[in-house]
Amino acid sequence: MNIVLGVGGGIAAYKAALLLRLFTEAGHQVTVIPTDASTNFVGAATWEALSGRPVTNNVFDAVDQVNHVRIGHEADLIVVAPATADLLAKAASGQANDLLTTTLLMARGPVLLAPAMHTEMWAHAATVANVATLRSRGVHVLDPAVGRLTGADSGPGRLPEPEDIFTAALSLVEHSAKRHAASPAPAASAASAGEALGTEPAASAGEQAGAEPGELAGRHVLITAGGTREPLDPVRYLGNKSSGKQGVALAEAALAAGAQVTLIHAPLDVAPPATARLQPIETALELRAATLAAAATADVIIMAAAVADFRPATISTGKIKKRDHGEDPVITLVRNPDILVELVAHRSAQNQQQLIVGFAAETGDDEADARTYAQAKLRRKGCDLLVVNEVGPGESGSERVFGQDNNHVEILSLDGSSPVQSAGSKRQVADVVVHLIAQKLGKNSQELARTRKN
């Protein structure tokens, strides 16, 4: 494979040398294009020695070969690491003042940008807008890692590890090839997901395709994530096992598909994407208020949060004491509102194309299996899609879904179309959900209204 490796002018440029080694040892031919600023960190001699190819960023070198056109045309993949805030801005605005930016404009294959910068730069409105623009055009922009930055700073903005960039780059090429192939992409572990739900196989194959860059461009996607906490006293709360990983993965997938994303989240075990509009909450009532307010402008609502069904009727102003000779405390619970049902009921007549997606953590019992309970819940809630997890301990005794990096789901549709199964990493599952949402949004408002009435 013919790969172009662009290197931006940040201190993380030294990590690009490790990435180059991974590409060359895998048998790929790599042309390195460093920016002038990046050579202050790693010189051209290093890139030439590691790649075995001449290195320049001057459009007037080897003019007879028309490099500013040829290199981009011939590239099977372009990776930029680190992609600084300056490079993101130039790429988003279509600047072409050196060999790297002209090559990006001439690219005909997939492009992967791996940002690295200080947290404030990554979260700045200008960078957020530039990343959204690039993603809407089909450019794959990784979220930076969270960790130690230059100096004593720490936070989102660290260059992802070379191994992670390498894996993402090859996966991007594979996904791009599948999208352009005549045959549909193969299903991922559909059989195992079906077995987990204990029912007949659901649809797979072509319906397993992941999200495509730009297919949610111009859409506003509202996502809830994490597990709500209901306070008992100043130090204790009722909570659940949700890590928020699936909701965060959905936000990342929607951003990659070009959407504007609002993420309303309870406490999370993972960092949310900085390019989403973030709104932290704690309780179910806070989640309800924030979600109903944001729903008015949303094209899609994905309720992935694990919302507490009950909350304490009263909250103690002081810590509840454990007394040696006292009676055990009695905690009275009251029911929380059903936010998903409210969202469906409040869907305005002017926004009948708004798509609402629910999540259900289900278990089977002696009376019925998980899918039967999930189908009943879908009819009761009235949402357009229901993403179903079968929760509880797996065969090894470990937790099957909560807190794990992988997931297996079955996606049920209110319109009666065949269930879709997906298994893999939570990001892979998120890609399948986002792609299915994009397909459903392709229906006109009359079709959506008809299926909801039926």
Automatic annotation (TrEMBL):
One of its GO terms (biological process) is coenzyme A biosynthetic process. The keyword Transmembrane helix does not apply. It comes from Arthrobacter psychrochitiniphilus. In the C-terminal section; belongs to the PPC synthetase family. In the N-terminal section; belongs to the HFCD (homo-oligomeric flavin containing Cys decarboxylase) superfamily. It catalyses: (R)-4'-phosphopantothenate + L-cysteine + CTP = N-[(R)-4-phosphopantothenoyl]-L-cysteine + CMP + diphosphate + H(+); N-[(R)-4-phosphopantothenoyl]-L-cysteine + H(+) = (R)-4'-phosphopantetheine + CO2. InterPro entries: CoaB-like_sf, CoaBC, DNA/pantothenate-metab_flavo_C, Flavin_trans-like, Flavoprotein. Binds 1 FMN per subunit. This is Coenzyme A biosynthesis bifunctional protein CoaBC. Residues 216-439 form the DNA/pantothenate metabolism flavoprotein C-terminal domain. Catalyzes two sequential steps in the biosynthesis of coenzyme A. In the first step cysteine is conjugated to 4'-phosphopantothenate to form 4-phosphopantothenoylcysteine. In the second step the latter compound is decarboxylated to form 4'-phosphopantotheine. Its EC number is 4.1.1.36, 6.3.2.5. Its cofactor is Mg(2+); FMN. Residues 221-454 are annotated as: Phosphopantothenate--cysteine ligase. CTP binds at D309, K319, P337, D338, I339, L340, F359, K377, K381. Residues 181-211 are annotated as: Disordered. Signal peptide: none annotated. Keywords: Decarboxylase, Flavoprotein, FMN, Ligase, Lyase, Magnesium, Metal-binding, Multifunctional enzyme. Residues 182-193 have a biased composition (Low complexity). Pathway: Cofactor biosynthesis; coenzyme A biosynthesis; CoA from (R)-pantothenate: step 2/5; Cofactor biosynthesis; coenzyme A biosynthesis; CoA from (R)-pantothenate: step 3/5. One of its GO terms (cellular component) is phosphopantothenoylcysteine decarboxylase complex. Residues 1-170 form the Flavoprotein domain.
